[in-house]
C-alpha cells in the first residue's frame, strides 16, 4: 500500500508510520518527493495483525497498490527515477549509450574500443568478464583479469563500466570493479542472485529474460528494490518467438509498456535483440523513438575474430554512424544524447528531473 503523507508532515509523524509498519512485521520504502513524502509499505500482513495507518497524525491517505510489483510501480512514484553513476545521469532527458565488446578479450583491445566508443559519444563502457554461454565449451570470459582491464579502461577514458555478475558468490568481486552490475537475460529469474543484489549499493542493469513477460521483468526488479537497492535500470534485449530471421525478436512495445508501468529507467539492447550487425542501427533509432532512456550496444574492432557475438558487433565506424543517427532521433523526441564531458563539466543536465 502507499501511505501519502500530508504536505507539512513532520519527521516525527513519518517515524510514527515507520514504527507502526515495523511493529506488524512489514517493511517500507520512503520516497521523498519535492512536495511530500510517500511511503511504500511492502510484505504480507499476518492474519493476526491489524494495521491502521490512516488514523495516524500527518497521514493524508492510504491507497492500495493494485499491481503485483509495488516499489517498481508508477502508482507509488510518479516521477521518473534518475540514477547517477560517476556523475552520469540515467533516466533524465538525455539518452545514455553504453557500448563496448560482448566479452573483454585483452587489455589493449579493450582500451582501444573504449577510446573509440567514447570518441563517438558513448557514456558507458560495456564488456563481459563472466560470460553466460549456451555451450560450456564456448569462451566463458576472463573473470577477474577482465575486471582489471575494465578498471584500467575506465581510468584511461573516464567511462564508467557496466559488466555482468552471474553468481551470488562473485558479487563482492564484480562490485569492486564495476560501476553498474548487469544481470543477464538468463539470470533474470535467479531470485537468490536478485535478493543479494538488493543488499548492495551499486546500480543494477536488469535484462529481460528470453521467455519472460514485462510483468515478470518488473517482478524481478521488485526483488532487488525490496532488498533496499532502488537503483535498477531495466533492459529490453529481445525475446524468443517463432521468428528465426533474427536471433531474438526485439520487443519495442515493451518500452512504452514499461514506461507506463514503472518509474525506473528503460534501456534497449539492439545487439542481442537482433543478432545482426546490419539491423542494429535501425533498431537503435527505433528504440529511442519508442521512448528508451538508453542503449546497450556491442562494438568490436575486429568482429570476425571476436570471441563472442561477432555477428552482432558493430565496427567502430558503424558505431560512430549509429551515434549520429541516434542524435537526430533524440532531438526529434525533445531529448539529447548525454555527452560525458559536458555532464561532468557541471553544465546543467537539460530536462533532468
Ligand atoms: C550481454 O549483454 O553480453 C549478454 C550476455 O546479454 P543477454 O544476457 O541479454 O543475453
Ligand atoms: Mn553478447
Oligomer: single chain
Tally of distinct domains? 2
Structural class: alpha/beta
CATH architecture of the largest domain: Alpha-Beta Barrel
Ligand set: phosphoenolpyruvate, manganese (II) ion
Q: Per the principal axes of the C-alpha atoms, what is the gross shape?
A: globular
CATH domain topology of the largest domain: TIM Barrel
What is the share of helical residues?
25-40%
Number of helices: 11
Order of helices and strands: EHEEEEEEHEHEHEHEHEHEHHEHEH
Overview of this protein structure:
By secondary structure, the protein is α/β, with parallel strands linked by helices. It has 2 domains: 2-63, Alpha-Beta Plaits (2-Layer Sandwich); 83-345, TIM Barrel (Alpha-Beta Barrel), CATH 3.20.20. It contains 11 helices and 15 strands. The chain has helices spanning 11-23, 107-120, 144-157, 171-177, 191-198, 214-226, 254-261, 270-274, 277-289, 316-332, 340-344, and strands at 2-5, 27-32, 37-42, 59-63, 83-85, 88-90, 94-100, 124-126, 161-164, 180-183, 204-207, 232-236, 266-268, 294-298, 336-337. The strands form 3 sheets. An 8-stranded parallel beta barrel has the order 7-8-9-10-11-12-13-14, surrounded by 6 helices. A 4-stranded antiparallel beta sheet has the order 2-3-1-4, with helices on one face. Helix 4 (171-177) links the parallel strand 9 and strand 10. Helix 5 (191-198) packs across helix 6 (214-226) and helix 9 runs parallel beside helix 10. Residues 348-353 have low confidence and may be disordered. The structure holds phosphoenolpyruvate and manganese (II) ion. Manganese (II) ion (MN) is lined by residues 102, 272, 298, 308-309.
Amino acid at each position: 500500500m502507499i501511505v501519502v503523507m500530508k504536505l507539512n508532515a513532520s519527521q516525527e509523524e513519518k517515524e510514527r508510520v515507520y514504527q507502526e509498519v515495523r511493529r506488524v512485521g512489514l517493511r517500507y520504502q520512503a520516497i521523498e518527493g519535492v512536495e511530500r513524502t510517500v511511503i511504500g509499505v511492502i510484505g504480507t500482513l499476518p492474519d493476526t495483525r491489524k494495521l491502521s495507518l490512516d488514523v495516524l497524525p500527518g497521514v493524508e491517505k492510504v491507497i492500495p497498490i493494485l499491481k503485483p510489483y509495488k516499489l517498481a510501480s508508477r502508482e507509488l512514484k510518479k516521477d521518473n527515477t534518475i540514477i547517477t553513476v560517476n556523475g552520469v545521469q540515467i533516466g533524465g532527458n538525455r539518452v545514455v549509450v553504453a557500448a563496448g565488446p560482448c566479452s573483454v578479450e585483452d587489455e589493449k583491445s579493450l582500451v582501444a574500443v573504449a577510446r573509440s566508443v567514447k570518441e563517438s559519444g558513448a557514456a558507458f563502457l560495456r564488456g563481459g568478464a563472466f560470460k553466460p554461454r549456451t555451450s560450456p565449451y564456448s569462451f566463458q570470459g576472463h573473470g577477474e583479469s577482465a575486471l582489471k582491464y575494465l578498471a584500467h579502461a575506465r581510468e584511461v577514458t573516464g567511462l564508467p563500466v557496466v559488466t555482468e555478475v552471474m553468481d551470488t558468490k562473485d558479487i563482492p568481486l564484480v562490485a569492486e570493479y564495476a560501476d553498474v552490475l548487469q544481470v543477464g537475460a538468463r539470470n533474470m529469474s535467479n531470485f537468490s542472485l536478485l535478493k543479494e543484489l538488493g543488499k548492495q549499493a551499486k546500480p543494477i542493469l536488469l535484462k529481460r529474460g528470453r521467455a519472460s513477460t514485462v510483468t515478470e521483468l518488473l517482478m524481478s526488479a521488485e526483488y532487488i528494490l525490496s532488498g533496499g537497492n532502488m537503483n535498477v535500470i531495466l533492459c529490453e534485449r529481445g525475446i524468443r518467438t517463432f521468428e528465426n530471421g533474427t536471433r531474438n525478436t526485439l520487443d519495442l512495445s515493451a518500452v512504452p509498456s514499461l514506461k507506463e508501468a514503472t518509474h525506473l529507467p528503460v534501456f534497449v539492447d539492439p545487439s542481442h535483440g537482433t543478432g545482426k550487425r546490419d539491423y542494429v542501427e535501425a533498431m537503435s533509432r527505433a528504440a529511442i523513438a519508442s521512448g528508451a532512456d538508453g542503449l546497450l550496444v556491442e562494438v568490436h574492432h575486429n568482429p570476425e575474430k571476436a570471441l563472442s557475438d561477432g555477428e552482432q558487433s558493430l565496427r567502430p565506424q558503424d558505431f560512430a554512424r549509429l551515434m549520429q543517427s541516434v542524435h537526430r532521433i533524440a532531438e526529434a523526441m525533445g531529448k539529447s544524447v548525454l555527452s560525458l564531458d559536458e555532464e561532468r563539466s557541471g553544465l546543467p543536465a537539460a530536462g533532468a528531473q
